[in-house]
Amino acid sequence: MPNSLENILDRLRTSNSIEEGERNELLQELSLLQTEMEETDFKLKRIQKDKSIAVKILEASIGDLERNQFELKQLNQQLSRQKEELKLQKQIIEGNSKTLQKSLEKLELSYNELEQFSYIASHDLKSPLRTISSFAQLLKNRYYQVLDGEARDFIDFIVGGVSQMNDVINGLLQYSRIEHDNKIMAYCDLNEVLEIVKANLKMEIEENHAEIQSVSLPLIYCNKIAIIQLFQNLIHNAIKFKSDLPPVIKLSYQYLEAEHQWEFRVADNGVGISQEFQKKAFLPFQRLSTKRTPGLGIGLAISFKVVKIHNGHIRYESNAESGTTFIFTIAAPEQS
What digits encode the pLDDT tens for the residues 252-281? Predict the structure, then answer.
């Protein structure tokens, strides 16, 4: 409160020249004025204080904005660098993808050429092999009795080797022919396929007292000849590698809707196959049994190839106690 107003009040209180009523009235008005001035002074101080706080807040906000702007600028620069790096990586990936695609095309071409060569070479080898076989058999028929024991052994080795080579060539032709027959696709009743397989293996089934159990099988889109070969190879293997018990082969299936595939299982009660042969088992001319059983080790390789051309996969689960279960898939055609 200004000193001048306080002085006026003091003088009014001590003055004798003013009547008491008028003096009291003046004192009352001056007191009201004093109160208003004190309130105004308080408001001014409050405003100044608030202004100071507002200025500080504004200065802090401006500082934060400047820092945020600087950080945003740095972030934009970082994003720009990352964008350039991603662009460069995309170019590298696209380049690698093209290189990989070319490599896959070259590999596919090489594979097809190898398949073609295998087919042609196997086919062309049959003619000279027949010549060797004919002359070896003629030599055996005419001179076998007049030759000594060592010479007879030599002839037997030649005849046996020619027979074995002929089996190998037939196996190669059979393996190569699967790829060439791939275009013959149609809907096929697998129950009919199973009956054909049973007829083809009639002698083996009867000699080994084998039992084939199957649910009603579906109609699928496939290469019928190749599928017959697939089921025949797996059932024949189950009979050939039997345990001491009569072979029991069980066929079942399910439709895998998420994968859009048929899954089939061919389970036996045979001697089983070690899990370590999971990859080797499906390679050509791989014999997994130590027993002296006939065959070239081509059956599972052909089965693998049949499944492959039907866009499926094949594997097995096995142990010595419960035998082997081959599990394979056949892709179902896309629904239009």
Answer: 999 999 999 999 999 999 888 777 666 667
Domain 181-331 has CATH 3.30.565.10: yes
Q: List the one residue out of 278, 229, 245 whose CA is nearest residue 237.
A: 229
- Listed in sequence order, the residues at least 6 apart from 64 whose beta carbon sits closer than 8 Å to its beta carbon are none
326: how many CB neighbours lie within 10 A of its CB?
25
Residue 277 contacts residue 317 (beta carbons within 8 Å): no
Facing residues of 316 across strands?
326
Residue appearing with tokens 């500082």: 63
pTM higher than 0.70 = no
Please report the sign of the dihedral spanned by the C-alpha atoms of residue 211, residue 213, residue 218, residue 220. Answer: negative
Can you tell me the distance from the alpha carbon of 47 to that of 263, in angstroms, rounded to the nearest whole number? 84
How far is residue 110 CA from its own chain's centroid? 25
Q: SS3 string of the chain?
A: CCHHHHHHHHHHHHCCCCCHHHHHHHHHHHHHHHHHHHHHHHHHHHHHHHHHHHHHHHHHHHHHHHHHHHHHHHHHHHHHHHHHHHHHHHHHHHHHHHHHHHHHHHHHHHHHHHHHHHHHHHHHHHHHHHHHHHHHHHHHHHHCCCCCHHHHHHHHHHHHHHHHHHHHHHHHHHHHHHHHCCCCCEEEEHHHHHHHHHHHCHHHHHHCCCEEEECCCCEEEECHHHHHHHHHHHHHHHHHCCCCCCCEEEEEEEEECCCCEEEEEEECCCCCCCHHHCCHHHCCCCCCCCCCCCCCCCHHHHHHHHHHHCCCCEEEEEECCCEEEEEEEEECCCCC
What is the pLDDT, as a whole number, of residue 188? 92
pLDDT 10s digits, 94-151: 888 888 787 777 666 655 655 555 555 555 666 777 777 787 778 788 877 877 878 8
